[in-house]
Design goal:
- The chain has ten helices and ten strands.
- It is α/β, with parallel strands linked by helices.
- The strands form two sheets. It has a seven-stranded mixed β-sheet with strand order 1-3-2-4-5-9-10, with helices on both faces. It has a three-stranded antiparallel β-sheet with strand order 6-8-7.
- The protein starts with 6 loop residues before the first strand and ends with a helix.
Length: 258
């Protein structure tokens, strides 16, 4: 089966490359503020993950298939890779499998290994119909669903435009496959590669109030990478590019230019 991911880009293709991977229920265009405000001297590439946005929705939704399609979509030129949440797991997988392609790795509140109990809980929750009577209701609910505490409503409205859309039944729904999201939670509960396989300069950015924990992995990550691992904690919750855009983007910019 031939299929290709939809890709958003910013900047001059001759510039150093940065690949940005969103998490579940997001889309590639969510990287636009970082690309346009902080990485203007880079060529930023941001695919819609399988099952999201304008990319294909059909299974399989395995990590292997995500990685295969991502590498086909962005090519095999070395780049800095940035991944948020499930996108962090995927960026880490690529760094461990193909370290020659990853010059620097940025993990934004990554969901590299989620406990089976938590994965089941969130997957069952996401089986419910996620629809709204209006676009405005969907925006209001996003603050609750993503536990946003420091985010501008205008930014959420802008980013959900064209992504939260009206269906034929008059309800407003996101442009992603709920089935693919549920499958992703199962993949996040699978054992990731060893940190020793990705001995690459890495920036780990964590939200101080995030509901995604990294405490069970941090000691192993530090032991494997030593001085190659930099850690930053920013205000707000899990969705760093909404809750802590300036702090997160500044940390990314500094790290890529170090």
């Amino acid at each position: 089966m031939s299929r290709a991911l939809h890709v958003e880009t910013w900047g001059d293709p001759a510039n150093p490359r940065v690949v940005c991977l969103h998490g579940v229920t997001g889309r590639g265009s969510g990287a636009h503020r970082v690309a346009e405000g902080w990485l203007t001297d880079r060529y930023v590439v941001a695919p819609d993950l399988l099952g999201h946005g304008s990319s294909p929705y059909e299974p399989p939704w395995s990590i292997d298939e995500h990685v295969r399609l991502l590498l086909e979509a962005v090519g095999d030129a070395p780049a800095a890779w940035i991944g948020h949440s499930f996108g962090g797991r995927l960026a880490f997988e690529i760094a461990a499998r193909r370290p020659e392609l990853v010059e620097r790795l940025v993990l934004l509140d990554p969901a590299i290994l989620v406990s089976p109990e938590i994965a089941l809980l969130v997957a069952e929750n996401d089986r419910r119909d996620r629809s709204y009577a209006s676009f405005e209701e969907g925006v209001d609910r996003r603050f609750v669903e993503s536990l946003l505490s420091r985010t501008s409503r205008d930014d959420v409205v802008e980013d959900l435009g064209g992504f939260l859309v009206e269906d034929e039944d008059g309800r407003w729904r996101y442009r992603y496959s709920q089935a693919s999201v549920i499958a992703a939670y199962g993949e996040m509960a699978s054992q990731p590669p060893a940190f020793e396989n990705a001995r690459i300069p890495t920036l780990l950015v964590r939200g101080e109030d995030s509901y995604v924990t990294y405490d069970h992995l941090i000691e192993a990550h530090r032991a494997a990478l030593g001085d190659l691992l930099q850690e930053v904690t920013v205000p707000g919750g899990h969705t760093l590019l909404w809750d802590a855009l300036d702090e997160t983007a500044a940390a990314i910019s500094d790290f890529l230019r170090a």
